[in-house]
Amino acid sequence: MSAASAKRTIRVIVNGEARECDVEPRTHLVDCLREELGLKGSHLGCEHGVCGACTVRLDGEIVRGCLVLAVQADGGDVRTVEGLSANGTGRELQRAFVARNALQCGFCTPGMLAAALELVEQRPNATRTQVREWMSGNYCRCTGYHAIVDAVCEVLAQGAAAKTITGATG
Ligand code: FES
Ligand code: FES
After folding, report:
1. Which of 34, 82, 104, 112 has the fewest CB neighbours in a 10 Å radius?
2. Which CATH superfamily includes the segment(s) 87-169?
3. How far, in Å, from the CA of 124 to the mean position of ligand 2?
4. Residue pLDDT, tens place only, 53-63
5. What is the pTM of this model?
6. Residue nearest (by alpha carbon) to ligand 2 atom 2
7. How far lies 26's CA from each of 66, 102, 106, in Å?
8. Which residues form ligand 2's pocket by a CB distance below 6 Å?
C-alpha cells in the first residue's frame, strides 16, 4: 500500500564488498548507489542515458546507472569509481587524467574513467580515432575532449610498451 511496503531488498557486490539495501522498484541503480549505499562518486546528470556521468560497471559491462533499475542489479557485481584504485589500470587512468589536466570541474570524470577502463581492458590496441569514438558517449562540458583522449592514449601506450618489454625479456 505505502511506498515503503513496496520496497524490495536487493543484494549486490559493490567494489568487492557485499552490500544490501531496500529499494523501491522504480529506484535507479545510480540513485541506489548514491543515496542508499553512500557512494557519491557516480554522478547524475541528464537522467536520460545521454551524458554518461552515471556510468558504472555491472557484471563486467559498463551501463548507464540512470537507465538500470536497482532491482535489475540484484545479485550482480557492481564497480564504481570508488573501486577503480583497486585496479592497476584504473589507478593509471586516474594518474594520467591528472597529469594531462583531463578534468576541470570533475563532474564527468567518474563516468569517463569507467568508460576508459572498459576501453583499455577490451581494446588495448585502440587507435586515437577509436578512443575518440569510444569516449564520445560521455559528455564533458568544461575540459574539452583533447586532454581526456590524450590521457587514455597515454595509458594505452604504456600497456603496449609493457607488452613489448615482456615479450623482449620473456
Ligand atoms: S545521468 Fe545517466 S546518462 Fe546522464
Ligand atoms: S570536467 Fe567538467 S564536465 Fe568534464
Report:
1. 104
2. [2Fe-2S]-binding domain (1.10.150.120)
3. 25
4. 999 999 999 99
5. 0.90
6. 105
7. 11, 34, 28
8. 103-109, 140-143
154 CA from centroid of ligand 1 (Å): 26
Class of CATH domain 3-82: alpha beta
User: How many Å lie between the centroid of ligand 2 and the Cα of residue 143?
Assistant: 5
Listed by start position, the domains of the chain span 3-82, 87-169
